[in-house]
């Protein structure tokens, strides 16, 4: 079994968000327990498993994603990484289509090397943040939004970019909240810097203390900030230590997520493992 490590939402190695990609030779997934063990062994925020589907169907590939602790319904950076692998190894070409737990997804490569994902827009429902949210984050929460069942995160607005960048949350307290993860966001301090809004993502409940760049979170960030700024096409900066840029294009009930990726490692499981 061949495993590639790909840095997604970046144009240089050792930045963006690393994902493991396993393109299976078989026409089916391994046993779920085996995929969970592999994801835990690799210990990145997500490991993607993909296999080809029969020709003529609604999708060309089946795709699943696992964190070190759980399978997830939707993952942007590992989908971008998978598309990058399929396109750069000539396993496929043109617009790729995936059947996933989060619904039908597509990925289209461009001549400049960027890849655009077509994802469902997360529904935003204003909510009162659960008790202890502000204390867990260590910051004042101005507003909170439930993002629906597919991604299952809580999106919280903070006062400004500095508040987002300076967060040092309590992982145990965050893990106790009834959400997959917490997305913290604010308007960019200086839009001329090349991005319109900032965010960070914390998911200790699914084994991710902080995710470097979270594509799925931008399916919720895009409708929030496009409505506020009055523009469908924006750029988000995820202000983790590795950082990454995500282009977002709101298209009704779909969001286009655009980024680049770099393969940094190729490995194989040892014989007999």
TrEMBL record:
Record keyword Phosphoprotein present: no
Pfam families the UniProt entry points to: PhzC-PhzF (PF02567)
Record's keyword terms, sorted: Isomerase
GO molecular function, one term: isomerase activity
Family matches, as SUPFAM superfamilies: Diaminopimelate epimerase-like
Database matches in PANTHER family: PHENAZINE BIOSYNTHESIS PROTEIN, PHENAZINE BIOSYNTHESIS-LIKE DOMAIN-CONTAINING PROTEIN
Similarity comment text for this entry: Belongs to the PhzF family.
Record's protein name: PhzF family phenazine biosynthesis isomerase
Biological source species: Streptantibioticus silvisoli
Phylogenetic lineage: Bacteria, Bacillati, Actinomycetota, Actinomycetes, Kitasatosporales
